[in-house]
Design goal:
Elements: H1 3-16, E1 33-34, H2 47-62, H3 66-69, H4 75-83, E2 94-96, H5 100-116, E3 124-128, H6 133-146, E4 149-153, H7 158-161, E5 166-172, H8 184-193, E6 197-201, E7 220-223, E8 238-241, H9 285-294, H10 303-324, E9 331-332, E10 344-348, H11 352-361, E11 364-365, E12 367-369, E13 373-377, H12 385-401
Helix pairs in contact: 1-10, 1-12, 2-9, 4-9, 5-6, 10-12
Length: 406
């Protein structure tokens, strides 16, 4: 039996024992191997019908009555409570709305204001030096707004960079480019030991692995919903504010939706209690209710089972790449150690852009990150082991034949 056949046989065995295999039928899929769910998740089958109902009945027939009768007004907190178990949070701490970028800004400025309630001298924001660009842009703006100095630091070096000037620290749970999983418990503890506030970006971890926001005492967190949560393009992001901090959280974007009496139309601002403080303006109902429908695929699904399958998928992919890809053509940037790995594999490849074009042409969809990274995301709810074997085999064929000839 050839090695290729052995790996294909192993894939069939792994798929046969996959306890999450049945969830795949809840997504709209075709014969493409889709490994870009870390950019945009696949469409859950329940979403089109739900959106049709929202548009035709709730909006088309009930119109303004739907704010009460269809639960539009309470959607940001209700959907936040559906996300909460996936990131290890109790209900009443997450509000859905706005974009990740806007929520990063709210969280960072709010973090500085929180810490200055007890120590007005703190004037430094530490930011992950490898962060997704928008986090850096928002951190720089938040620093200017609060009169802070912005200090970019590699996550591993954060504990040694903290001091009595540190006000807030913004970190990514998983590095978007390499797939490296950072140590949220230890880094959060280090931030707290320095008297600062910890803000985490969960875009590449929520829905792929356990986070433990409550367990590890995270102060503030943000995340998107269109990746592993499959909420759809542009689906609203979310903001987590730890319960003990909610009465002191001072958002830099006080809107009428976060007012204690939103329909009082008072000229003076009084913040609401609870996670509603994180709201700003009118919720984007169409995309928000599409997200709510998408989250139904999580009913009965354990995030621990998702994590176990994620690690098995990425392990198997790396095994297949080692077997199928010509030596020296790619280099994995993703850590081998499970405790340091998210749910993606990033491969450095000198002609990565051309290679990804050829892969997509062959029905294997990942993505390309300049200048030389092939990025493959593994969504355990709908990616199977046969998909993984096929993706690695096609990658090997493309690289053996050359990016332009595969």
């Amino acid at each position: 039996m050839s090695e290729i056949t052995e790996l294909a046989f192993k894939a069939r065995e792994l798929d046969a024992g996959d306890e999450l295999a049945g969830v795949r039928s809840q997504f709209v899929l075709d014969d493409v191997v889709y490994l870009d769910g870390n950019s945009l998740g696949a469409l859950p089958v329940a979403v089109p019908g739900r959106v049709q109902d929202v548009v035709r009945r709730q909006w088309g027939e009930l119109r303004i009555r739907s704010w009460d009768e269809s639960g539009w007004w309470t959607a940001p907190e209700r959907i936040g409570d559906r996300i909460a178990p996936l990131v290890g949070a109790a209900a009443g701490q997450i509000v859905v709305g706005d974009s990740t970028s806007v929520n990063v800004f709210k969280a960072l400025v709010g973090a500085v204001r929180l810490v200055r309630l007890s120590d007005s001298a703190r004037d430094e924001i530490v930011v992950d030096a490898t962060t997704f660009p928008t986090d850096g842009y928002m951190a720089e703006s938040a620093a200017r707004m609060t009169g802070c100095t912005l200090r970019p630091v590699a996550p591993a070096e954060v504990p040694g960079a903290l001091g009595d000037r540190t006000a807030a620290v913004l970190l990514n749970h998983v590095d978007y480019r390499t797939g490296r999983l950072h140590d949220l418990p230890d880094l959060t503890a280090a931030v707290h030991a320095a008297g600062a506030v910890a803000v985490w970006d969960l875009c590449h971890s929520a829905g792929a692995l356990p986070v433990g926001l409550d367990e590890h005492g995270v102060d503030l967190a943000v995340g998107c919903t269109y990746k592993y949560l499959n909420g759809g393009p542009g689906s609203p992001a979310y903001l987590y504010v730890r319960r003990e901090l909610q009465d002191r959280f001072d958002s830099p974007l006080p809107g009428w939706n976060s007012h204690a009496e939103p329909f009082g139309m008072r000229p003076d601002y009084e913040p609401a209690s609870g996670p509603q403080r994180g709201r700003v303006g009118t919720p984007d109902i169409l995309s928000m209710l599409a997200l709510e429908a998408a989250l139904e695929v999580w009913d009965g699904v354990s995030i621990d089972s998702v994590r176990a399958k994620s690690l098995a998928l990425t392990d198997f992919f790396l095994e297949c790449v080692a077997e199928y890809v010509p030596p020296g053509r790619v280099e994995s940037l993703t850590p081998v150690a499970h405790e340091e790995r998210g749910s993606q594999v990033a491969l450095r490849c000198s002609d990565a852009g051309e290679v990804m074009e050829r892969l997509i042409g062959r029905g294997v969809v990942g993505d390309f990150r300049r200048p030389d990274v092939l990025r493959f995301g593994f969504t355990p709810l709908y990616v199977g082991f046969a998909d993984v074997e096929r993706a690695a085999r096609v990658l090997g064929e493309v690289l053996r034949g050359g990016a332009g000839n595969g």
